[in-house]
UniProtKB/TrEMBL annotation, chain A:
Protein name per Swiss-Prot or TrEMBL: proton-translocating NAD(P)(+) transhydrogenase
Pfam families: PNTB_4TM (PF12769)
Organism per entry: Sphingopyxis panaciterrulae
Location of the NAD(P) transhydrogenase alpha subunit C-terminal domain: 7-90
GO biological process, any: NADPH regeneration
UniProtKB/TrEMBL annotation, chain B:
Entry-linked InterPro entries: DHS-like_NAD/FAD-binding_dom, NADH_DH_b, PNTB-like
Membrane-topology annotation of the record: Multi-pass membrane protein
Any single Gene Ontology cellular-component annotation: plasma membrane
Residue stretches spanning the membrane: 12-29, 41-59, 65-84, 91-112, 132-153, 165-188, 194-214, 221-239, 245-265
Compartments it resides in: Cell inner membrane
Family to which this protein belongs: Belongs to the PNT beta subunit family.
Keywords: Cell inner membrane, Cell membrane, Membrane, NAD, NADP, Oxidoreductase, Translocase, Transmembrane, Transmembrane helix
Residue stretches making up the NADP transhydrogenase beta-like domain: 12-468
Protein name: NAD(P) transhydrogenase subunit beta
Gene3D superfamilies assigned to the protein according to its UniProt record, in alphabetical order: TPP-binding domain
Predominant subcellular localization, coarse grouping: membrane
Amino acid sequence: MDFIAIFSIFVLACFVGYFVVWSVTPALHTPLMSVTNAISSVIIVGALIASAAAGSPVSKWLGLAAVVMASINIFGGFAVTERMLAMYKKKER
Amino acid sequence: MHDVAPINPWVALAYLVAGVFFILALRGLSSPASSRRGNRFGMAGMGIAVVTTLVTHELANPIEVIGAIAIGAVIGLVMARKIAMTAMPQLVAAFHSLVGLAAVAVAAAAYLNPGAFGIADEAGQIFTVSRIEMGLGIAIGAITFSGSVIAFLKLNGNMSGAPIILPLRHLINLGTLAAILGLIGYFLTDQSPAVFWTITALSFLIGFLLIIPIGGADMPVVVSMLNSYSGWAAAAMGFTLHNTAMIITGALVGSSGAILSYIMCRAMNRSFISVIAGGFGADDSGGAGGGAKEQRPWKPGSADDAAFLMSQAENVIIVPGYGMAVAQAQHALREMADLLKKEGVNVKYAIHPVAGRMPGHMNVLLAEANVPYDEVFELEDINNEFAQCDVAFVIGANDVTNPAAKTDKSSPIYGMPVLDVEKAKTVLFVKRSMGGVGYAGVDNDVFYMDQTMMLLGDAKKMADDIVKALNGSGH
């Protein structure tokens, strides 16, 4: 993909983000932060590529370290979000 | 084996689906009812991204990779289970630092082995566009990391919340930033390690320098801002790897953090620039001078008085602040509200955006205490109801109820949106003592009004005593 194609996706995604985030209810801003934190760990994709590649052992170990860090975030971020969201209950009756 | 999967449309499509799932994850948060489904979308999106990567890249050693994921999973799940809800801001700051450091590691790995990422030509020269992306990625990642570490230490109390002011800090910071940008420019012509690692080192340094002068009261803005940076770091890496899932996510997270920073700034009536410049709360002369003012009369009250007044009321609005959470009074408070509701009192909660230590923090703390979310209202939704309410019950909050923000132009909190508790027929104000002042160090006229009764004592003990009094008087 050329740079302009990727850049177009980026700019449009910024607009989507802008509108989607303003529609998030303020009561859920803390879960919003924890879930955005979890999804930004999609950089695990880059970490996996680095750890899979042959050629540079240092690069491989950096990749593996990044896989560990991103995994902490992914599992921790989604789990803590789930834990918080489970606490939000409607009034009985 | 050093070429990334040549642009396979199925792979690109899978990453796109992952990106769309992340959008749906945030979309779900528009209401608590759909929020858990949203979170599942997020998990599914992540699953798709990871599996796609694993099946399209031949793993040199699958056991190592699976092991690394397993280690991370165990640590993450234990942290998520153990963390107290009052400590959420620290946890989020810690998570941000990991995203930052992971981005640095990935950028460094890509620099050391560009062939594996398909971003270099035959001679090992990294493409020009990739150099900019990589330089920005490692810089933002490093700033996110060191900034988040400082934010974590301040929020966790390992480091004083007081701003640390270095002489000439603006000059040093701007100089460092200019040096980083200049070096990224130079990196385009010279990809030697010295340039790359200097950018990295300077970026770690600037993250540290940017956050140390920012005081504890501004930490909600800082945490949101670092949230935003972690997104931009992911986006920059997405550009390097030509990965749509990463770019979409980065844009979403980047916007999200930026919007939350804006909301927090607006709630404190502070400009983003003044928060970033730091130093708020460093000048304590104003707060200390307040003690010398003339003693104004105020009316003390007891838990029995409060129980009687509230049980006779028709409408009660509870205004909780972070002091309530620090005293762990939320469960006693909810018990009190339950007893009042049994007596036929209409109970609501009013939340100021900066009531907690991060955006939405107070809502989580109340939810944890089983307060139904449809009894909890945001400032703009409930503020005009104070005029019709019989009792405003303020517990652990102070500055966010101060009418000086509306009337006194000389007040440091002038212009900040506040809850209009002074309009209630009776104000019950739970406070540790008459001596202490809020974060902003200003006196609150609400204390001295005729209709105000000061309930002095620990928030939890006071709530417990009111519960006892309500049980005693009742049936």
